[in-house]
Design goal:
Its EC number is 4.1.2.43. By secondary structure, the protein is of the alpha/beta class. The chain contains eleven helices and eight strands. It is 47% helix and 20% strand. The chain binds ribulose-5-phosphate.
Length: 213
Protein backbone atom coordinates (compact mmCIF):
# COMPACT_ATOMS: atom_id res chain seq x y z
CA UNK A 1 0.00 0.00 0.00
CA UNK A 2 1.20 3.53 -0.77
CA UNK A 3 2.43 5.52 2.21
CA UNK A 4 -0.34 7.66 3.69
CA UNK A 5 -0.37 11.33 2.76
CA UNK A 6 0.04 13.96 5.45
CA UNK A 7 -2.33 16.90 5.41
CA UNK A 8 -1.77 20.08 7.43
CA UNK A 9 -4.97 21.87 8.43
CA UNK A 10 -4.38 25.60 7.93
CA UNK A 11 -6.95 26.78 10.44
CA UNK A 12 -5.89 30.39 11.07
CA UNK A 13 -8.11 33.26 9.95
CA UNK A 14 -5.09 35.40 9.15
CA UNK A 15 -4.11 35.39 5.47
CA UNK A 16 -0.40 36.05 5.93
CA UNK A 17 -0.07 33.67 8.87
CA UNK A 18 -1.67 30.98 6.70
CA UNK A 19 0.85 31.50 3.90
CA UNK A 20 3.71 31.59 6.38
CA UNK A 21 2.65 28.35 8.08
CA UNK A 22 2.32 26.68 4.68
CA UNK A 23 5.86 27.76 3.77
CA UNK A 24 7.21 26.56 7.13
CA UNK A 25 5.79 23.03 6.95
CA UNK A 26 5.87 22.51 3.18
CA UNK A 27 8.87 20.15 3.16
CA UNK A 28 7.08 17.72 5.48
CA UNK A 29 3.49 17.57 4.21
CA UNK A 30 1.67 16.47 1.05
CA UNK A 31 -1.63 18.33 1.28
CA UNK A 32 -2.47 21.85 2.36
CA UNK A 33 -5.96 22.01 3.80
CA UNK A 34 -7.52 25.47 3.77
CA UNK A 35 -9.67 25.04 6.86
CA UNK A 36 -13.32 26.00 6.94
CA UNK A 37 -12.95 29.19 9.01
CA UNK A 38 -9.96 30.17 6.88
CA UNK A 39 -11.72 29.76 3.52
CA UNK A 40 -14.83 31.55 4.77
CA UNK A 41 -12.70 34.44 5.98
CA UNK A 42 -10.32 34.72 3.06
CA UNK A 43 -12.21 33.38 0.06
CA UNK A 44 -11.24 31.89 -3.25
CA UNK A 45 -8.25 34.19 -3.80
CA UNK A 46 -6.36 32.27 -1.11
CA UNK A 47 -6.84 29.10 -3.17
CA UNK A 48 -5.38 30.84 -6.23
CA UNK A 49 -2.48 32.21 -4.18
CA UNK A 50 -1.55 28.86 -2.61
CA UNK A 51 -1.93 27.14 -6.01
CA UNK A 52 0.55 29.60 -7.53
CA UNK A 53 3.01 29.41 -4.65
CA UNK A 54 2.91 25.60 -4.27
CA UNK A 55 2.29 24.03 -7.68
CA UNK A 56 3.50 20.64 -6.44
CA UNK A 57 1.29 20.35 -3.36
CA UNK A 58 -2.22 19.00 -3.23
CA UNK A 59 -4.77 21.60 -2.12
CA UNK A 60 -7.87 20.66 -0.14
CA UNK A 61 -10.53 23.29 0.42
CA UNK A 62 -12.58 22.37 3.47
CA UNK A 63 -15.85 23.85 2.23
CA UNK A 64 -18.01 21.48 4.30
CA UNK A 65 -20.70 22.17 1.71
CA UNK A 66 -24.28 21.73 2.98
CA UNK A 67 -26.34 22.62 -0.11
CA UNK A 68 -25.96 23.54 -3.77
CA UNK A 69 -22.98 21.20 -4.08
CA UNK A 70 -22.03 21.64 -7.72
CA UNK A 71 -22.63 25.40 -7.69
CA UNK A 72 -20.65 26.04 -4.52
CA UNK A 73 -17.68 23.78 -5.26
CA UNK A 74 -17.15 24.62 -8.94
CA UNK A 75 -15.30 27.96 -8.47
CA UNK A 76 -12.95 26.39 -5.93
CA UNK A 77 -12.01 23.56 -8.27
CA UNK A 78 -11.60 26.12 -11.05
CA UNK A 79 -9.25 28.10 -8.77
CA UNK A 80 -7.01 25.08 -8.32
CA UNK A 81 -8.43 22.90 -5.55
CA UNK A 82 -7.57 19.23 -5.87
CA UNK A 83 -10.12 18.22 -3.26
CA UNK A 84 -13.22 19.93 -1.83
CA UNK A 85 -15.21 18.61 1.11
CA UNK A 86 -18.97 18.17 1.32
CA UNK A 87 -20.89 17.21 4.43
CA UNK A 88 -22.36 13.71 4.50
CA UNK A 89 -25.28 15.15 6.51
CA UNK A 90 -26.16 17.34 3.51
CA UNK A 91 -27.66 14.33 1.75
CA UNK A 92 -26.82 12.40 -1.38
CA UNK A 93 -27.99 15.04 -3.89
CA UNK A 94 -25.55 17.64 -2.55
CA UNK A 95 -22.71 15.11 -2.32
CA UNK A 96 -23.38 14.09 -5.93
CA UNK A 97 -23.18 17.74 -6.96
CA UNK A 98 -19.68 18.12 -5.51
CA UNK A 99 -18.63 14.79 -7.05
CA UNK A 100 -19.87 16.07 -10.42
CA UNK A 101 -17.92 19.32 -10.05
CA UNK A 102 -14.81 17.39 -9.03
CA UNK A 103 -15.03 15.07 -12.01
CA UNK A 104 -15.51 18.02 -14.36
CA UNK A 105 -12.14 19.38 -13.16
CA UNK A 106 -10.21 16.11 -12.91
CA UNK A 107 -10.26 16.57 -9.14
CA UNK A 108 -11.68 14.76 -6.11
CA UNK A 109 -14.60 15.09 -3.71
CA UNK A 110 -14.30 14.19 -0.04
CA UNK A 111 -17.33 13.31 2.04
CA UNK A 112 -16.99 14.62 5.60
CA UNK A 113 -18.75 12.17 7.92
CA UNK A 114 -18.77 14.67 10.80
CA UNK A 115 -22.00 14.36 12.82
CA UNK A 116 -23.49 11.77 10.46
CA UNK A 117 -25.73 9.45 12.48
CA UNK A 118 -25.23 6.31 10.37
CA UNK A 119 -21.70 6.73 9.03
CA UNK A 120 -21.54 3.26 7.49
CA UNK A 121 -24.71 3.76 5.42
CA UNK A 122 -23.61 7.25 4.36
CA UNK A 123 -20.14 6.06 3.38
CA UNK A 124 -21.58 3.17 1.38
CA UNK A 125 -24.06 5.40 -0.47
CA UNK A 126 -21.48 8.10 -1.24
CA UNK A 127 -18.89 5.59 -2.41
CA UNK A 128 -21.52 4.09 -4.69
CA UNK A 129 -22.20 7.62 -5.99
CA UNK A 130 -18.54 8.01 -6.93
CA UNK A 131 -17.02 9.86 -3.98
CA UNK A 132 -13.25 9.74 -4.07
CA UNK A 133 -12.36 10.18 -0.39
CA UNK A 134 -14.25 9.39 2.83
CA UNK A 135 -13.41 11.74 5.69
CA UNK A 136 -13.66 10.27 9.17
CA UNK A 137 -13.75 13.38 11.29
CA UNK A 138 -14.22 14.33 14.91
CA UNK A 139 -14.60 18.11 14.86
CA UNK A 140 -13.04 20.58 17.24
CA UNK A 141 -16.19 20.96 19.35
CA UNK A 142 -16.64 17.20 19.67
CA UNK A 143 -12.95 16.85 20.56
CA UNK A 144 -13.48 19.38 23.35
CA UNK A 145 -16.23 17.08 24.65
CA UNK A 146 -13.75 14.18 24.72
CA UNK A 147 -14.55 12.41 21.44
CA UNK A 148 -11.99 10.86 19.06
CA UNK A 149 -12.20 9.51 15.49
CA UNK A 150 -10.59 6.13 16.19
CA UNK A 151 -13.72 3.95 16.52
CA UNK A 152 -15.28 5.48 13.41
CA UNK A 153 -12.05 4.93 11.47
CA UNK A 154 -12.16 1.21 12.26
CA UNK A 155 -15.83 1.02 11.24
CA UNK A 156 -15.22 2.71 7.88
CA UNK A 157 -11.93 0.97 7.10
CA UNK A 158 -13.42 -2.48 7.58
CA UNK A 159 -16.05 -1.80 4.88
CA UNK A 160 -13.35 -2.10 2.21
CA UNK A 161 -14.94 0.59 0.04
CA UNK A 162 -13.27 1.68 -3.18
CA UNK A 163 -12.32 5.07 -1.71
CA UNK A 164 -9.38 6.54 0.13
CA UNK A 165 -9.92 7.22 3.82
CA UNK A 166 -8.95 10.47 5.47
CA UNK A 167 -8.92 10.82 9.24
CA UNK A 168 -9.05 14.05 11.25
CA UNK A 169 -9.67 15.04 14.79
CA UNK A 170 -6.86 15.73 17.18
CA UNK A 171 -4.32 13.42 15.52
CA UNK A 172 -0.90 13.87 17.10
CA UNK A 173 2.49 12.19 17.34
CA UNK A 174 1.31 9.66 19.92
CA UNK A 175 -1.67 8.50 17.79
CA UNK A 176 -0.51 8.92 14.20
CA UNK A 177 0.95 5.43 13.84
CA UNK A 178 -2.24 3.84 15.16
CA UNK A 179 -4.37 5.57 12.53
CA UNK A 180 -1.95 4.48 9.81
CA UNK A 181 -2.24 0.87 11.02
CA UNK A 182 -6.03 1.23 11.15
CA UNK A 183 -6.08 1.94 7.42
CA UNK A 184 -6.04 5.72 6.99
CA UNK A 185 -4.69 6.88 3.62
CA UNK A 186 -4.66 10.58 4.49
CA UNK A 187 -3.69 11.80 7.96
CA UNK A 188 -4.92 15.28 8.85
CA UNK A 189 -3.03 17.17 11.51
CA UNK A 190 -3.91 20.67 12.65
CA UNK A 191 -3.34 21.81 16.21
CA UNK A 192 -0.56 19.29 16.88
CA UNK A 193 1.49 21.07 14.21
CA UNK A 194 0.39 24.72 14.22
CA UNK A 195 0.16 24.77 18.03
CA UNK A 196 3.61 23.29 18.55
CA UNK A 197 6.57 25.44 19.63
CA UNK A 198 8.18 24.56 16.27
CA UNK A 199 5.57 23.67 13.63
CA UNK A 200 8.35 22.56 11.25
CA UNK A 201 9.78 20.14 13.83
CA UNK A 202 6.30 18.85 14.68
CA UNK A 203 5.51 18.25 11.01
CA UNK A 204 8.86 16.51 10.49
CA UNK A 205 8.18 14.24 13.47
CA UNK A 206 4.75 13.29 12.09
CA UNK A 207 6.36 12.47 8.72
CA UNK A 208 9.04 10.31 10.36
CA UNK A 209 6.45 8.44 12.43
CA UNK A 210 4.29 7.76 9.37
CA UNK A 211 7.30 6.58 7.34
CA UNK A 212 8.34 4.25 10.17
CA UNK A 213 5.10 2.22 10.19
O1 LIG B 1 -11.65 20.37 10.02
C1 LIG B 1 -11.30 20.70 11.14
C2 LIG B 1 -12.27 21.15 12.15
O2 LIG B 1 -13.58 21.03 11.68
C3 LIG B 1 -9.84 20.63 11.50
O3 LIG B 1 -9.10 21.25 10.50
C4 LIG B 1 -9.41 19.18 11.67
O4 LIG B 1 -10.13 18.64 12.77
C5 LIG B 1 -7.91 19.04 11.91
O5 LIG B 1 -7.49 19.78 13.01
P1 LIG B 1 -7.04 19.10 14.42
O6 LIG B 1 -5.89 18.19 14.11
O7 LIG B 1 -6.63 20.29 15.26
O8 LIG B 1 -8.23 18.36 14.93
Amino acid sequence: MAKPLIQIALDSLDYNATIQLAETVAPHVDIFEIGTPCIKHNGVNLVKDLRARFPDKLLLVDLKTMDAGEYEATPFYAAGADICTVLGVSGLATCKGVIKAANAHGAEAQIDLINVEDKVACARACAEAGAHIMGVHTGLDAQAAGHTPFGDLNDIARLGLNVRISVAGGIKASTVQDVVRAGANIIVVGAAIYGAPSPADAAREIRELVEAV
